[in-house]
Amino acid sequence: MKRPGLLDSHDPEGELEVVCRARGLSPDVLRTLVHAVRSRAGQLRRRGLFDQFDATLDSAHEGEAS
Amino acid sequence: MRLQTVRLSNWKGYRRATLPLPDTTDDRNVLVIRGANGAGKTSLLEAVVLGLFGRQGLDLVGRAATGDRPELSYDAFLERALNTGAHGREAKVSVELEFAGGEHHQLSLKRTWHFSAGGRHRRDDEEVTIMMGADWDLVALPPHPEREEAVREFVGRQIVPRNLAPFFIFDGEHLDRLAGKNLEAQMRSAAELVLGGPELRATAADLRAYARDRRRDARASNDAALDRLRGEANQLEASEQALMQRVESAAAAITPVRGARDELVRKIGALHGDSYASFKALFEEREAKARERAACQDNLRQTLSVDLALALAGGKLRSAAQAQIAAEALRDQWVAGQENSWARFDMFRDQLLSSGPVETGLASRLRTAWEAVWNQAPDGCATERRHTHLGEADRHLVAQHLATISANSGIQIAKLAREVEALDKAVDDLEDRIARQRGLDEQSQSLADQLRAVQEQIAQLEAQRQVDVQALDQLRLTLSPLRQEIGRLVGHAVTHAPMLRRAEEAELYASAMEAALEAALPRSLAALADDVTSAYRAMAHKRVVENVRIAADGSIALLDGVGRDIRRQDASAGETQIFALSLMAAVSAAYPLFPILMDTPFARLDADHRRNVLKHFSGLGVQLILLAHPAELSPDDISALGDRYAGEVQVRHELSDGESVSRISVASEAVHGA
């Protein structure tokens, strides 16, 4: 059976959560970034991917600011 | 993801073949492709490998002789793969693989190789077509040479990463090589794969590309250019400041001097009072007289210029000329009268002589008497004509003009001359009076001198100020576009500040993904080691290995009951194969996304081991495709698969029109217990 990958684990003591916490980053934003890439898998030009990165990172920034 | 159909064209023994694989599920997941030696089983496996990976898959193909020049080996392998029936003309070979399941539900990858009529592989003409999704959407691929890398990335993300392909597609020889080779890198890859590493690493790479892109855009605001412009502007602004100070200083210097001038003017005005007004009136009168004199002189000059010569000649000469012209006119009249008179004399003489004889000499005396009575020159008649060029009318006009000059011009000229003389005197008188008034006012003269000096000082200051103002204008003409450009760049930088922040954050997230992967890797390797241990213990009946340990660097140790690494000791070929199969099974269990294709890997295994292997692999749930000759899988082996067995496809070798061809037929589908 396939074991859950890093992204699938929401254990607060999981590596992803720990690393993000230590660096002041949001695991949710990290997952959103990976999902943006995943949603464009197979689209070799990845049109719009960078715009989606912009939006994700901006929303994270606004979240921090508010 | 399940392999559903393989289509081949001119590939090795297959002129044109479609291999429709029986449907499989998680529970009914084992297929057998059966054929005798040389029937085309391995050709099918090679088609799958090269179809997926192109030249990158060459070292997975046991029959390809890879060396220092893999591109030559690739060419050579493909040229050998060209179906013999396609020789002698331009031809193409294609492999098309259709998969079901996965994220996009269905996916088709077709790779086509082109060959010259001489059978040479045309390296740059390789084509790949990928379609996927419910509507078989065509995936856009870049042109050669970027295409191959794009396909490799696509296959790695959507089907199976190239570095992990050996865990899923293998034959007996490959198993031997895998068991004996250094596996560290592949184990780390497998452990990362289980963690979702490729996706995280791909995202990290995309984030870094994104950060570069955004920084490049932000750098378009060009800090260096901004610094340079700011430096230039600073210098110009310093010069502008200096010039502005000079202009202001000049203005400040002029103001008191102008005040002094105004004071001098006021003093002069106050000093003169009525006399100053009188002085002014005298000066104005003198100017008026001077203007009047000039006008009079002009009039005199004009009058004189008209009949100047005649006027200068004087009255006597004009009178003599008038008399001569009159005498000549009289003479002309007299001469004209004489002609008539002599005509009448001739008539008289002829009448007298016709009346009878007359004494000799009478005609001559009559002539003399006629001349004396009738043809005497009148008084005042000119003895000769001096103005022979004048006709009667001209003579009359000249005489009349001379009479006019004699009568009027002299008087007019004299009058004008007298007026000029009088005006000269008036101007002289006025100048005397002005001079006298000046002389009377020494204080006024001193003030006037001071005023003149002050005026000169003001003029100098104004001139210098004007030079500075012009320099300032010129400098501002240079500075203005600089300031505009700086404003534009600063605006750009402000606009792009969020872009730089996002770039920074993108890199932070990319680093975090990689750090999390590194942190999780030992755990993943340990779990993989447990899977390998479990698989080994399930398949190896000797159970010598108690534990498989995979270190953080990916190195593997097969530990026996007392902790010895049996990989360092001599192991049987069968045991080595079991170990390699355990790795395959562990990776497949951890990453059950791609079919397992085994090409007769059981030659070194006894029946017990073979059934253990089949049982273990079929229990993984992934599609298991076994390529085997009839002797490798006995009916008992098939029976042992139980409900896992989904069906069988047979490939056979035939001779057709003297050519060796491979043919495919679906022999049975899930004929359980057969």
Polypeptide structure, described:
The complex is a heterodimer of chains A (66) and B (674). Chain A is mainly alpha-helical. Chain A has helices spanning 15-23, 27-39, 49-65. The longest helix of chain A has 17 residues, at 49-65. The radius of gyration of chain B is 66 Å and the shape is elongated. Chain B is α/β, with parallel strands linked by helices and 674 residues long. Chain B is built from 15 helices and 14 strands. In chain B, the strands form 3 sheets. Chain B has a 6-stranded antiparallel beta sheet. A 6-stranded mixed beta sheet of chain B has the order 8-11-12-3-13-14, with helices on both faces. At the A-B interface, helix 1, helix 2 and helix 3 of A face helix 3, helix 6 and helix 12 of B.
Main attributes of the structure:
heterodimer; B: 674 residues; alpha/beta; six-stranded mixed β-sheet; 14 strands; 61% helix
Offer a concise description of the structure.
The complex is a heterodimer of chains A (66) and B (674). Chain A has helices spanning 15-23, 27-39, 49-65.
**Spatial extent as radius of gyration of chain A:** 14 Å
Q: Please tell me the overall pLDDT of chain B.
A: 82
Topology as H/E string of chain B?
EEEHHEEEEHEHHHHHHHHHEEHEHEHEE
Fraction of residues in helix of chain B: 55-70%
Largest sheet of chain A: none
Largest sheet of chain B: 6 strands, antiparallel
Quaternary structure type:
heterodimer
Are there runs of chain B of 5+ residues with pLDDT below 50, and where?
669-674
Layout of secondary structure:
The complex is a heterodimer of chains A (66) and B (674).
Chain A: H1 15-23, H2 27-39, H3 49-65
Chain B: E1 2-11, E2 14-20, E3 30-34, H1 41-53, H2 70-81, E4 91-100, E5 106-115, E6 127-132, E7 137-138, H3 146-158, E8 169-171, H4 172-180, H5 184-194, H6 197-219, H7 223-306, H8 308-313, H9 315-354, H10 362-374, H11 392-440, H12 442-539, E9 547-550, E10 556-559, H13 573-590, E11 596-599, H14 607-618, E12 624-628, H15 635-641, E13 645-656, E14 659-668
Parallel strand pairs in B: 3-12, 3-13, 8-11, 11-12
Antiparallel strand pairs in B: 1-2, 1-4, 4-5, 5-6, 6-7, 9-10, 13-14
Helix pairs in contact in B: 4-13, 5-12, 6-12, 7-11, 7-12, 9-10, 9-11, 12-13
